[in-house]
């Protein structure tokens, strides 16, 4: 099938035939579909177990190896025929379209992580709608109050505490925080280890403020002896537990009776948040199942004989809430991928339009140049020396190249310069932007006593670094459009 496609392309669309774009497009799409389904399978949740990704570094190493092998085979085939040099005259925009095809091929072979993560995240979202998942996370978060939730700290005793290192009558006093023996909740004093001083569990669906409001709501239920709402919460929790067939030796009535102790809420039993039969201990950062006991000691927990497979339930719902609150695609990793793809495509494209000899000379020259300006920067002990020299050198190279092109002098002397221009122009704007940002920071450091956040212009520069990198991608594409026309004109300059 591929041979027939290539034959038709050779007759009708020689550029697509030359780059092997259609076969590589099919291979790239199929590979990414495979990675998507692998990710979808890896996102499977078993609500009776902790979630573990079944794939590790080995999988991604294997994926990288497959992409490299396919890329090398494509490059061998692609470099066999160079229509720019041998076969036929290029149309005005043919070089630009050829570069775009190189970018697409390299992108398809290197983006396997993204369809994999997309499939995994999509599968986790598909278990429950966002509305139902958020409602259930609210119930699980609230129920933590009556199982094994953490405690709020008591207030610091400002009279007996030493809040800063100090000297009193010539005697050094180190920081020492002493806490009150009670907490004030809704106008009443309770023991710091009272059940009413518990915290709710955190889920990514909710902000800290929403968690605080939820905790306050439960404390109001307890302080006003609203047993109806407390029992309703426990009933809703048990319905989720039973739906997922998780073990417990509690009933709703028993759970209420051993934890609810109005009005002091001081005497209660600790519910073990994991079954003693749980085999997976990867998340078992709680103290082990021990014995029947009362009260809570901050560093010496003793659980009652009752347990609920609460930690497993929380872990799975945290996976779902994380899938909903995390975007499918984040801009920073995408930009990193695009810059790597564009950089590699520039290397391929420059090799294509110049020669292997000039490409190697340019590579060695660039390496030596970086060593030299690195030494100069080190001797000057000034960080900005390197980017400034890099920018100035790039402008000199551009000037030399265009002086030859406009004067239509010998082309062979500019091949090395053309390679350097293609490689470096994509990083010109980020280098200028970051250099200016560093210079501006140095100029305001003394005036603002190194507190850069007080300067609105610096904040603007700092807040828009990602935007700058994104816009630069667009400018690189526009720049390559015009550069391809320049390279086409450059081809007409004589070799000698």
UniProtKB/TrEMBL annotation:
<feature type="transmembrane region" description="Helical">
    <location>
        <begin position="360"/>
        <end position="380"/>
    </location>
</feature>
<feature type="transmembrane region" description="Helical">
    <location>
        <begin position="386"/>
        <end position="407"/>
    </location>
</feature>
<feature type="transmembrane region" description="Helical">
    <location>
        <begin position="21"/>
        <end position="38"/>
    </location>
</feature>
<feature type="transmembrane region" description="Helical">
    <location>
        <begin position="96"/>
        <end position="116"/>
    </location>
</feature>
<keyword id="KW-0472">Membrane</keyword>
<keyword id="KW-0812">Transmembrane</keyword>
<protein>
    <submittedName>
        <fullName>Uncharacterized protein</fullName>
    </submittedName>
</protein>
<feature type="transmembrane region" description="Helical">
    <location>
        <begin position="58"/>
        <end position="76"/>
    </location>
</feature>
<feature type="transmembrane region" description="Helical">
    <location>
        <begin position="334"/>
        <end position="353"/>
    </location>
</feature>
<feature type="transmembrane region" description="Helical">
    <location>
        <begin position="416"/>
        <end position="436"/>
    </location>
</feature>
<feature type="transmembrane region" description="Helical">
    <location>
        <begin position="465"/>
        <end position="483"/>
    </location>
</feature>
<keyword id="KW-1133">Transmembrane helix</keyword>
């Amino acid at each position: 099938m591929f041979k027939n496609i290539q034959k038709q392309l050779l007759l009708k669309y020689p550029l697509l035939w030359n780059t092997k774009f259609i076969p590589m497009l099919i291979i790239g799409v199929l590979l990414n579909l495979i990675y998507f389904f692998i990710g979808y399978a890896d996102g499977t949740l078993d609500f009776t177990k902790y979630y573990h990704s079944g794939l590790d570094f080995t999988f991604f190493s294997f994926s990288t190896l497959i992409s490299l092998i396919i890329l090398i085979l494509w490059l061998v085939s692609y470099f066999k025929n160079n229509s720019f040099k041998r076969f036929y005259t290029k149309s005005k925009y043919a070089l630009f379209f050829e570069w775009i095809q190189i970018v697409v091929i390299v992108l398809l072979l290197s983006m396997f992580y993204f369809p994999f993560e997309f499939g995994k995240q999509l599968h986790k979202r598909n278990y429950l709608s966002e509305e139902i998942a958020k409602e259930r996370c609210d119930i699980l978060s609230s129920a933590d109050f009556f199982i094994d939730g953490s405690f709020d700290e008591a207030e610091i005793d400002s009279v007996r505490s030493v809040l800063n290192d100090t000297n009193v009558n010539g005697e050094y006093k180190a920081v020492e925080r002493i806490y009150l023996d009670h907490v004030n909740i809704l106008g009443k004093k309770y023991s710091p280890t009272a059940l009413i001083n518990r915290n709710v569990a955190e889920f990514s669906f909710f902000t800290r403020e929403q968690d605080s409001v939820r905790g306050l709501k439960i404390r109001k239920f307890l302080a006003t002896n609203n047993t109806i709402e407390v029992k309703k919460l426990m009933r809703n929790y048990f319905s989720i537990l039973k739906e997922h067939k998780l073990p417990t030796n509690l009933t709703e009535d028993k759970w209420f009776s051993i934890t609810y102790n109005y009005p002091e809420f001081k005497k209660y039993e600790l519910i073990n948040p994991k079954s003693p039969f749980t085999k997976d201990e990867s998340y078992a950062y709680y103290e082990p199942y021990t014995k029947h006991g009362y009260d809570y000691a901050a560093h010496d927990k003793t659980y009652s004989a009752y347990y609920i497979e609460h930690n497993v339930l929380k872990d799975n719902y945290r996976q779902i809430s994380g899938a909903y609150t995390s975007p499918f695609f984040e801009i920073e990793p995408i930009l990193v991928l695009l810059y790597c793809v564009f950089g590699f495509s520039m290397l391929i494209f420059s090799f294509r339009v110049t020669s292997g000899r000039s490409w190697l000379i340019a590579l060695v020259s660039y390496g030596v140049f970086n060593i030299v300006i690195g030494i100069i920067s080190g001797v000057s002990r000034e960080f900005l020396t390197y980017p400034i020299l890099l920018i100035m050198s790039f402008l000199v190279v551009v000037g030399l190249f265009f002086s030859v092109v406009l004067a239509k002098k010998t082309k062979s002397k500019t091949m090395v310069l053309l390679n350097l221009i293609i490689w470096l122009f994509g990083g010109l704007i980020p280098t200028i932007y970051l250099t200016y940002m560093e210079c501006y920071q140095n100029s305001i450091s003394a005036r603002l006593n190194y507190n850069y956040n007080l300067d609105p212009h610096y904040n603007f520069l700092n807040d828009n670094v990602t935007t700058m990198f994104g816009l630069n991608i667009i400018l690189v594409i526009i720049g390559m459009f015009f550069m391809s026309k320049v390279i086409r004109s450059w081809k007409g300059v004589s070799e000698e």
